Amino acid sequence: MLTRIDCAHLLTADEHQPYVPAAAVLVRGDAIAWAGPGAQCPATREQADQWLDFSDKIIIPGLVNTHGHSSLNCMRGASDAGDFTQWAGELKAYTSDLTPEALHFGNLLSVMDMLAGGTTCICDCTRYGIGGLSRAAELFGMRSLAGGLANSPELRTDGQGNWDDIVAWCDAADICPDRSTLVNVYIGAHSPYNCTGELLKTAHAQARQRGLLFVIHAAETKAEESTILQRYGMRPIPWLHSLGVLDENTLLVHSVWLNEEEIALISHCGCKVAHCPASNMKLGSGVAPIKKMVRSGITVGLGTDSMLSNNSLDLFSEMKIASLVDRITYGPDCLDNRQLFHMATIEGARALRMDRWIGSICAGKKADLAVLNGYHPLGYDEQRLLSDLVFYMNRDSVYATMVNGTLVYRDGRFLLQDGEAVREQAKRYFEESEKYRKLLHGEAREKGDRK
Ligand SMILES: [Zn+2]
After folding, report:
1. 306 Cα–ligand 1 center, Å
2. CATH number of the domain encompassing residue 36
3. Average pLDDT in the 96-112 region?
4. Which of 7, 291, 294, 371 makes the best surface tag, with the fewest CB within 10 Å?
């Protein structure tokens, strides 16, 4: 099927044709067949099988979220306390023992939240219920790269080992080596402090053997730095390097506490970075040296992190926050609006090693698009549009979302599933569940940590 989409402004994140006013995009099946000025479009509205008239709207590539924990969505606001350590301690009661239903509703609600906010791909992390996000994303038509974060029970007393579950899920998954499919898989490890060196090496080797991305939280907090220094006599990045787990297929999440040598090492190894500025600030973790990383040639994408540490999945806000924290840190020599827009699109796709298929709008890529409402009293040109994307717009600006050539969200409604029904079912589940009634009414806090 050939679909012609007309729009007022097209921002492609593709260097050959970054901005086109009065544009058209042709979509054949799941892929973009052509994009450019509407007047030069090789297919008229009549020749196309379907015409989508977005001629008063803006089209950008679907946003790419490089880090989230979707299954925890329902516990939003369970703790907004202090720094990372306080926050993580307070959350144990809420996150260590979630029921399969709570994980399932968390995944569904996160997917809905992201699609309604123009995000078409998520790199999602979980310790339990591995594969749940992929199923939820598939139901609503969203693209995903999902996997489990292995952890060592001897180092993480509130959890259980999950390595066997991760391997079993990978064995069962239908893995597409070039990541062109809607459902994609990686292998991850939680962090240097929650995993033994042996587990990190095993997880990385399995990822490499299967041609998968290796994902790990790294250098997130000062506390992590002192723990690793104390245990191994090395800082987190040199320690990971000594284990041989840093390479071009490694995605480092957060990467806040880095010195110049470590930035050079990450760049040399070809690792990618998921930058989560709102989460880093909410948990008081620190300011990641993003500009230094970008200037060292490191690919940096944006991530929201979880509903517990952000508490939003809005990548428009993330662009703005990334810019603000960069400006307050580095002054006028800061990242420009185009760089921030690219971190939410093509650079995010590069960080996930999916840029062959997503992240920009050009012929041959998958048709993952976000359609936006926008108004500027002076009208839009490229500069004003980039400025509005970073500083003025937010998830409410999204009118429609297309993934893999299918319109999955439009004007407040999900087109493949009944979103309202999911919200109602989730609400009813938590109302009727004795366990959560107690937990959410604060009894768990009185009792202290639960296993
Ligand atoms: Zn995380």
Report:
1. 7
2. 2.30.40.10
3. 93
4. 291
